[in-house]
Amino acid sequence: MHNILVSDINQSLELSLPDTISLEELRQKLVFHINHLINHDFEKLVFYLYRIDVDESKIKKLLDQKGGENAAELIADSIIERQLQKIKSRQQFSKNKSADAETNW
């Protein structure tokens, strides 16, 4: 699942991180990239969040609740969480599709 996560994040954020990167390194690089976007291209960050389907109201709520924390870290964690949810959904859909195909025979 880790390789899929890295691949999905690379594709969604137009990055080229290696598949062998650890989850902590992935998070750190994501935080760095998000900080850069916050400071230099906020529109692109908003576009990426929309593309990934990160709930904007959830991000705003998190930022309000945890005002003293690093915004890029909160956003990075939300991106990773959302990507993991999508991966699990695809896997579940794939399992259900396989089970349906077996019962049709």
Explained architecture:
The protein is mostly helical and 105 residues long. It is 81% helix and 0% strand. The chain is globular. It starts with a helix and ends with a helix. The mean pLDDT is 90.
Walk me through the topology.
Elements: H1 2-13, H2 23-40, H3 42-52, H4 56-65, H5 71-104
Helix pairs in contact: 1-5, 2-3, 2-5
Which properties best describe this structure?
105 residues, single chain, 81% helix
Helix percentage range: over 70%
| Broad structural category | mainly alpha
Order of helices and strands: HHHHH
Distance between the termini: 30 Å
Weakly predicted, low-confidence segments: none
Binned strand content = under 5%
Number of helices: 5
How many β-strands, per DSSP?
A: 0
Cα-based radius of gyration, to the nearest Å? 16 Å
Multimeric organization: single chain
Shape: globular
Largest sheet: none
Average of per-residue pLDDT values:
90
Gist of the model:
The chain is mainly alpha-helical and 105 residues long. Helices cover 81% and strands 0% of the residues.
